[in-house]
Amino acid sequence: MNEPICAICNKPESWHHAFVPINRPKGCLCSVTDWRDKHNIPPVCEKYDGDGGYCKKCEHDKKCHAA
């Protein structure tokens, strides 16, 4: 079961009473643990600029750009 993960504590929604959802930008397929500030995940840029890892422009994975 894929239960929503809290942006503050990284626990499933059912584990606590003050749930704050992670709002991913369109196209973002990154792991929720990739972002330190889960409230301000940058948008995915239009063209991937990297060498197989994270994009140099927006810091998203290559797979996010294909979405």
Element layout with pairings:
Blueprint: H1 62-66
Search tags:
67 residues, little secondary structure, 1 helix, 0% strand
What do you see in this structure?
With 67 residues, the chain is low in regular secondary structure. The protein is built from 1 helix and no strands. It has one helix at residues 62-66. The longest helix is centred in the last third of the chain and has 5 residues, at 62-66.
User: First CA to last CA: what distance?
Assistant: 22 Å
Q: What are the low-pLDDT stretches, counting only 5+ consecutive residues below 50?
A: none
Shape: elongated
Helix content range of the residues, please? under 10%
Give the class from helix and strand content and strand pairing.
Answer: little secondary structure
Mean pLDDT: 85
Order of helical and strand elements: H
- How many H/I helical runs? 1
Main beta-sheet strand count, sense and barrel state: none
Query: What amount of the residues lies in strands?
Result: under 5%
Number of strands: 0
Radius of gyration, in angstroms, nearest whole number:
13 Å
